[in-house]
Amino acid sequence: MQFLAWKKSTNWRPLYFLLTVLITIFCVEVIVMYLLPLLLPVNVSEWGEAFSDALLLTMFSTPLLWYWVFSPMQKLAETETNKANVIVNSAIDPIITISGHGLIKSFNAAAERLFGYPAAEVLGKNVSILMPSPYREEHDSYMDRYWSTREQHIIGIVREGVGQRSDGTTFPILLSANEVITNDKNTTLFIGILRDLTAQKQAEEELHKSKQIAEAANIAKSEFLANMSHEIRTPMTAILGFTDILLNNVKKSENVDAASTIKRNGEHLINVINDILDLSKIESGKINVEQIQSSPCQILADVASLMRVRATAKGLPLDVRFNGTIPETICTDPTRLRQIIINIVGNAIKFTETGSIQIVTRLLNKPGDEPKLQINVIDTGIGIAKSKIEKIFQPFTQADSSTTRQFGGTGLGLSISKRMAEKLGGEISVTSSPGNGSTFTITVFTGPLDNVRLIQNAAEVVLEPANGNEAADSASPLSNSRILLVEDGPDNQRLIGFILEKAGAEVTLADNGQIGLELATTAKSKGCPFHVILMDMQMPVLDGYDATRRLRNNGYSGPIIALTAHAMSSDRQKCLDAGCDDYAAKPIDKTQLISTVAQYAFSQPAQKSRDAILGILIQQQM
Q1: Average pLDDT over residues 281-299
Q2: d(Cα 379, Cα 262) in Å, to the nearest integer?
Q3: Is this structure's pTM higher than 0.70?
Q4: Which of 87, 166, 335, 381 sits in a 20 to 30 Å window from 532, CA-based?
């Protein structure tokens, strides 16, 4: 074995070369000795002497040639080979070479450490010893297929695999395999460079677990916010609703002031809840923005109409101006843009005691840039220190710790507005100085304006919006309508029932979804179905979702409007998926509720006609 190892490690090429030289000299001397005398008239004895001299010279010169030339060449080759072996063995990554038949030819120190085998134990063995099942059984068939088809599945690429240690344990590896043709009889070798992926996989697993924990925490937070919203909105429906009733029936100024205070603070509490929910939706990535054609002039008209009342109450004029032409429509989310402007203008009014509030709008349409709409909200309020400007856009943060005590608020409005502006492809910036007011600049993308008309006198378009709720404005907009109110809360039963009955409706109450299901089914079977069902979605015994689904499964086609105190982004869709036609969030807006109920109550005949026509068409096609 030692001789074979020595023979294998020795470089025989210089000896082969020396032997070739000796044979060549011998052949030349034979030719000179025996052939030339036949061709040329020379003395054979002289040729013999010359041959003997040449032979002696060769015999004495060969050891010297070996000592001075070929031996150093062999030592140099061995030195280079040893250097290569040292480099390979000092490599951090395991390096293995195998023959074309899958036998291990070299196994460096890193491979020994990784697999737990000494090199002497694996050299000459099939590389499948380093693989677990089923890879071990597949290896030889893969090698045979490679030699017959030359199809490469792992050669020349990097891929993940599984290794097996000497103790039988397995671990993930990263394998880079390449084919090499050596000079030794054109022998094919495969070189594999491996890397242990155990630590990486453990880190990935820890990251995955952390992500799952974070997602679970985020879901828990969302559920908590939804439940909190429900728990607060449900009583606020009764508080604000009965406050409105009180305001319509009290005459003494102190009673009016008391009821107004209750309503104002109740609305403030709802605004706080809305801000928290908006921030939660933005942070979780669940807030959606639309991209539809909208009128910027109408959006600003809505804002001016809403905020002018608050500004006038503080004695502040609210001026809306336009610089240059304004596009008739832009592609944006009108609800989000309106919310952003309302938040900024609301802050301007809140922090301004004297002076005025201005809303200045212009179109930025420079060649080579995407067109943008810029809206400046300018106030003459308390201003903001330069060092505090970035801070005001952080959640739950205000420029001064005393701001909350003096002016109120959660410190969420600007943070939400900035993030929504970014969702619309724009941004919000501010310039300000203490005591000199602030200018908040809102920019949003308008979308392409190639075929959009530009309005020259946009200020003329900003008019007070007309009240389109004609049904709600009439004395009895719900006259002759039969409404089933499915609601478990006694206070909300009284409030919503009072609002509907005052609008002229006949109201039937159900304390839970099971009772509501039975009443609706009975009324339909008697041929007098309810015009509209108002279905609370959170109830004992049977909730509104299941009650609605059962009604739809039983063939009930009448209008069902969901009532829910949940206000998360997915709540509306959840109600619609259950089979509801529309959605009303608590606290109930009296005017909006009456308008919505009237819309469905008095459009039912038309809907029945459409259903009848659809049924005829279906029968004709069958």
Answers
A1: 74
A2: 29
A3: no
A4: 335
